[in-house]
Amino acid sequence: MEANPDAPPESRGGRLSLDVEHLAQNNTSPDKWKVTLRIAVDDEEERTPPYSVELRLTGFFRYTGQLDSQGDAEVAQLVLVNGGSVIFSAAREHIWLATSRGPWGSFSLPTLDIRDLVVDIPSGDQGNGMSSSAGSEA
After folding, report:
1. DSSP 8-state symbol, 32
2. What 8-state DSSP symbol labels residue 73?
3. Residue 97 in 3-state DSSP?
4. Predicted confidence (pLDDT) per residue in 2-47, tens digit
5. Residue of 26, 24, 22 whose CA lies nearest to 36
6. Cβ-based neighbours of 134, under 8 Å, separated by 6 or more
7. Rounded distance, CA 21 to CA 126, Å?
8. In the prediction, which pLDDT does 114 show?
9. Calpha distance 5→43 (Å, rounded)
10. What φ, ψ does residue 41 adopt, rounded to 5°?
C-alpha cells in the first residue's frame, strides 16, 4: 500500500479487484479450510485513487456443520462466502487505519456482499472462486 503522488486530493476513485487465490480443505481434518484473498485498488480511466493497494490475506476457518449432509461444493461455497466476508472486512479496517495517517487521509473500500461475487465452485482444491473483478469503485 502506498500513497499515489499523482492523485488529486479530492480523488476517491479506482477499480477494486477481488480474487480468491486459494480455497482448500485440510486433507486430515475435513472441517478445516484455508481461504486466501487478493485485494487491489488500481487506476481507472480518468480516476486515480489516492492510494495504490495490493493485499493478500489468508484466513483459517472451521466448518462446524454436518459434513455428510451437504456436498463438498456446497460446503466450499459456504466457507468461501463466510470466510471471504471475514477477510474482506479485516482488509477494509486495515486499509482505513493505515491510510488514515497518509497524506490523503483515510481511504475506505466499499462494503459489498460477497455472495454476489461467488461463482460456481467445482469440487476439489480451488482457486478463483470469485469473479476476477468486483467492478466496484473503491
Report:
1. E
2. H
3. helix
4. 888 878 767 777 888 898 999 999 989 989 999 999 999 988 777 7
5. 22
6. 16, 17, 18, 112, 117
7. 8
8. 86
9. 13
10. -125, 120
Any bridge partners for residue 130, and if so which? 118
The helix/strand count (H/E) of the chain reads as 1, 4
Helix (H, G, I), strand (E, B), or coil: what is residue 119?
Answer: coil
Mean pLDDT, the chain, rounded, equals 81
pTM for the model:
0.80
Residues in Cβ contact with 41 at an 8 Å cutoff, skipping those fewer than 6 apart:
14, 15, 16, 17, 49, 51, 52, 53, 109, 138
Considering 48-52, 57-61, 132-136, the range whose residues carry the highest mean pLDDT is 57-61
